[in-house]
What we know:
Chain A is mainly alpha-helical.
Amino acid sequence: MKIVDPAPAEIAGLAERYPEFLRPRLKTRIAPAATAAAILGLFVFGLVYLDFSPARLLDGLVALARFAALMVPPSPEGHFLLFAQSLAETLAIALLGTLTASILAFPFGLAGARNVVANPIIHFLVRRVLDIIRSVDTLVWALLWIAVVGLGPFAGVLAIASSDLGALGKLFAETLETGDARALEGVRAAGGARVQGVRFGILPQALPVLAGQALYFFESNTRSATIIGIVGAGGVGLHLYEAIRTLEWREVSFIVLMILVAVAIIDFGSSRLRAAMGAKSAG
Amino acid sequence: MPGASPSAIVVLPEERRLALQRSYARAGAAGRVKGLVVFAALLIAVAIAVRVAEIDPATFWRKIGGFTSYVDRIATLDSGQRVWTNPIEWFWGLRRWLRLLGETLLTSYVGTLWGAAAAFILCFAASANTCQSAALRFCAKRFLEFCRTVPAIVFALVFVVAFGLGPLPGVLALAVHTVGTLGKLFSEVVENADMKPMEGVKASGATLVEIIRFGVLPQILSNFATYTLLRFEINVREATVMGFVGAGGIGDEFLIAIRSFYYSDISAILVLIILTVFIIDLSTEQLRRRFLSDRVK
Lengths: 283, 297
């Protein structure tokens, strides 16, 4: 088959019928190029403003390569028990923090869900409070809690709990809202009060999902809990910080490996658990 | 209450009602036993965790009062007034803090863009439909996993030693972590892309780059942009703490305020951080909406 070029007259006709394809307007032609230029321009400005220079990058990369060479073989240098203990502390912080956050987030989720609390003012206020809590990073919370309760894992638990309260509360509220409304209507139609409607109409379908979300947060919190030790809120992060500051690179690589293995194990176990729960709630 | 029911409702005979009630109770009991087992397991785990982390619940109640007094202190100026009565004194360092916040935003912008660009290249190597070599795919995937699992602040710690203090190690740390998270999301998008356009372009004799440019990119670009914007939001939050380890931005100033007990500065910087994150979240949400509406058209 041969592809035939359209006759000039036909092209004119086509152009008249489909102006957006054959004669794109100036705006649609310029807009992508202008956006790309703006994005790139800001990027280059950022590089200059933030003091990037090829020499500095090269020096740093050479130093990094040297550190990487010093990292093999990973070795605890006789501190294995100490590291293992603080890793266990990290997991404990993640568990307690997530649990506290879930328990606290539950009433927030209920108050923030439109189908549970109909009052728009309460709904709005709860959502904004959760937004504020969420916009502060876990490490900032850790510093604040250290100032209140002192150094140690206790501050870490509170830091994880408070930063997760914002995220989980929002997630819980959204989950409760997206549930099937017919169950709630059924309970109400049978003469159930509003509280009974929530208890028998909304919660049974939402609870497994909420539990899955809490479990997922526990998974990601094992990662966050490894770093709060950097500011002194307990866990393995403190030793990692110390090892990097004293340039004990073999310890650094050992601790990072320990963290990776622990995170992989928790991920595996919790995704199995979540799959089991999902299968149950689906069946 | 079978006897008291209004006549319109049909009441089951007593024996059938009892049978139903019994089976309902049985069904409930099975669930309750399961629930109790899970609850017991959780309690044991919590008990172990409390031992390991050496947390005394009694201390909690003793120290929780410290929280309210702390809030009270950070809401009070040196002159003894409440902070909101004198915003000029409260935000005395506004110009400096805004400059540092700008540095933080720029750090997350450059880091996100850099990471997204690297993730964009790597994601094709990690996707089964664009990369034939299983070995290359395996390496790309493990690399992305490593970048994702090691927290950005840990990269920042190492980079501060290698590159020196300042925002540069912060940018690189965010970029590396972003490569890991975005690379995974991107490669999932690519793997879920429709194969037909790719095959069409390939059938007309295109090279791999051309296949990606004309067969894959048009399908995935808006998804990529959405994910990158979401990551930018997260990176803004992360960039606020980069200063804790000496990697630039507002975090350094916040750490100093906390360590030196400049109470009203703590609250002022917190307010600025929260406002910045709010503004960024709202504006990226607008942008994301626009991408989505573009795609619908």
